[in-house]
Amino acid sequence: MLDLYCGAGGASVGYVRAGFTVVGVDNRPQPHYPFRFVRGDALTYLATHGHRFDAIHASPPCQAYTCLRHVAKKEYLDLVGPTREALIALGVPWVIENVPGAPLNDPIILCGTMFDLRVYRHRLFESSFAMVAPPHPQHIAPAVGTRGRDRKRLYEREGYFATITGNVGTYCRDAMETEWMTTREMSQAIPPAYTKFVGRSLREFLDGNR
Asked: pTM of the prediction?
């Protein structure tokens, strides 16, 4: 499995738990990435080495699609389209992950509540193979806000659910099961449980086509 725009490896860990060996690529140093890491441009690496992999995951930068782009007043690259085109041209099974609002085609949505995680964090997954999302429980439990001194207490003692946006707290390591990450890395990551589920669906697809 090739993990493009891998960050600190939330997606990669999930795929490893699903039985894959993973190589991560990112254009920034990732000192806490837990597997083989290559620093470089994702699309350049894909064009040169993508044919060596059984499947590819890509999490293009999400800033162009979040509501925070209006606050920052910056222009961000839209890499979903170019990434999809490159993956289709390569011809191996692939997955693209991004935030709600990103221009993904017929994606499934995954949330921490689907995997017994105490975190509300919706992410979209578009794939070249069929996937069916697990049932999505209602968000009944209150959510910890993004600011305030009592966030850790609310999560640990009051049974609140975490939200991983903005100013992430250390308690979120437990909520997302990303104990190796810094809080800054977590703000850009997804829980490994998401890609463990995706990876199992991908394994079934690959086994069925052998």
From this structure: 0.90
